């Protein structure tokens, strides 16, 4: 199963078992050739969960600006479902993890692992999301950062950020980085507008430890084993 999951070759996996690096259902494996049920067994390598179920799909999408974060759109607008249409027609039932409004581009996760998707979206697990925002006005880092970290009152209750960094300032605009675990609609735009700096462009670059990197808009990539393990870890699965 370790070889099939891409952890290591069979020989290397045997060495990892001998070294006490493999855990099944919370117990360090002491013997070679242990039989497991991949549907139910929780396997960890050096403490990081390994997912070995064949049918599970974990994808990172760079959602282009102007596209809807839905699997279909009754008004015929371009949507995420168009990008994964072949996978869906082949029988994969994919969930998108959270949404991005049409004018926002960046990282969206797609999976058929319903429990993982549910937990990643649930506020109790506080999975941080990172955004780069271009805003109007030259941002005073100290003043605005304090306002956003202390929290501001929005029409549907108070909201605050976990981290705030000003990256560039000039020509009446600023580039800022915002990290927060809130999932309310348009939350980044509303927070920045609330401190007097309306957003002109917004990109989500990270969900937890998963990074968009240099992935081009409209492209999909399959998440790596370590990335999937870290998502599981983030939501206590």
TrEMBL record:
GO terms, molecular function: RNA binding; rRNA pseudouridine synthase activity
The protein, known as: Pseudouridine synthase
PROSITE patterns: PSI_RSU, S4
UniProt keyword Hydrolase, yes or no: no
Alphabetized PANTHER family for the sequence: PSEUDOURIDINE SYNTHASE FAMILY PROTEIN-RELATED, RNA-BINDING S4 DOMAIN-CONTAINING PROTEIN
Coiled-coil segments: none
Listed GO biological process terms: enzyme-directed rRNA pseudouridine synthesis
Species whose genome carries this gene: Nocardia huaxiensis
Keyword terms, alphabetized: Isomerase, RNA-binding
Listed EC numbers: 5.4.99.-
Annotated ranges, domain RNA-binding S4: 1-56
């Amino acid at each position: 199963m370790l070889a099939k999951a891409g952890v290591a070759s069979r020989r290397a996996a045997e060495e990892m078992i001998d070294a006490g690096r493999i855990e099944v259902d919370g117990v360090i494996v002491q013997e070679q050739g242990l039989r497991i049920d991949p549907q139910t067994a929780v396997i960890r390598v050096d403490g990081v969960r390994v997912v070995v179920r064949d049918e599970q799909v974990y994808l990172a999408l760079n959602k282009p600006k102007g596209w809807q974060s839905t699997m279909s759109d009754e008004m015929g607008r371009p949507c995420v479902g168009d990008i994964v249409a072949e996978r869906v027609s082949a029988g994969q039932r994919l969930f998108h993890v959270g949404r991005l409004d049409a004018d926002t581009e960046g990282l969206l996760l797609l999976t058929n692992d319903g429990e993982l998707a549910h937990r990643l979206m649930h506020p109790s697990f506080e999975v941080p999301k990172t955004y780069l925002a271009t805003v109007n006005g030259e941002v005073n880092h100290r003043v605005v950062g304090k306002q956003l970290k202390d929290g501001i009152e929005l029409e549907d209750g108070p909201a605050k950020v976990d981290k705030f960094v000003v990256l560039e300032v000039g020509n009446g605009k600023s580039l800022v980085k915002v990290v927060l675990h809130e999932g309310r609609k348009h939350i980044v735009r509303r927070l920045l507008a609330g401190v007097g700096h309306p957003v002109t462009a917004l990109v989500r670059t990270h969900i937890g430890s998963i990074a968009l990197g240099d992935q081009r808009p409209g492209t999909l990539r399959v998440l790596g084993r370590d990335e999937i393990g870290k998502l599981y870890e983030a939501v206590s699965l």
